[in-house]
Amino acid sequence: MATITLSDLTFLFKIVPVKIGPNAAENRKADTHWYPPTSMEDFILDEANSTGWCRWSANGVQEGVHSVNTSSPDDDVCSVFFDSERDHFLVTPVDCAQGGVQGLLEDVGIGWSRVTFQHLDNGRHGMISKLSFHDHYHWLGAQGSSTWMPQLLPKTYDNNARRDEYTGLIGELSLLLAFAAFSCEPRRNDMITTIRESFHPPNWIYRERNTPSVKLFPYCHDQGLIVRIRPDSSSRIGRPELENFKNGVYGVLIIPQP
Question: What are the structural domain ranges in the chain?
């Protein structure tokens, strides 16, 4: 097989906006911090603004490529909300509208949690931060770049102890796409346009938004996103290759730069 590079990355994705129902009780833990609900009955899907299944590749975003909208065990899934009180994302590696959060809570004792990072020192690319659901740190391995911070990640994720270097990003593609979609309105055309124009590994292309970010209060405590990613069966990039892309084997997804 020919050598795989970042230009070969391709996958299918689907993003569905989800709201917390008006009758859901506010979920605050003993530390008084806000979290989304854990019961599937407390979420309302906005199917009208679902992206449907799309194909992402270096050539852009192709819409309407998948006729089967059911879930697959091969999907990477995440549900994401934003806590404006602490200025950070709350995530879970399951579909919150299908009862996954409560099941996860019962199985491993963790439902919603803050996004985490693994800090990796890559000699060629400098410090790399690997996005994940349950890892060591709640902040980046070094400074975030002004080209994607605060649009992709808010400045609360900056590593102020390492002001002399910048970090690149690898890790969960579902989280990266969720963060991209959180930089615009949760409308189908806005989300697809944002991903088409700005998500260009190894770069994030900064563009001014004509609509407000979902991260604005109080919108953020009501509106979330469910993201699914699966291998593109029409390409040579299968599950093992997608895992390699997530792990930075073929290159850094978002490169370090000032």
Answer: 6-235
pLDDT at 152: 92
Residue 148 per-residue DSSP state? T
What is the rounded radius of gyration, in angstroms, for the C-alpha atoms of the chain? 17
Whether pTM exceeds 0.70: yes
* Residue 3 buriedness (CB in 10 A; 0-12 / 13-18 / 19+): exposed
Residues recorded for the chain: 258
**What are 223's two structure tokens?**
């509106």
User: Which uninterrupted H or E stretch holds 230?
Assistant: strand 223-230
DSSP 3-state of 172 = coil
Nearest-angstrom CA–CA distance, 36 and 28: 9
Segments of the chain scoring below 50 in pLDDT: none
The reported pLDDT for the residue numbered 100 is 72
d(CA 156, CA 73): 34
pLDDT score, position 124: 66
Closest by CA to 74, choosing from 226, 227, 231, is 231
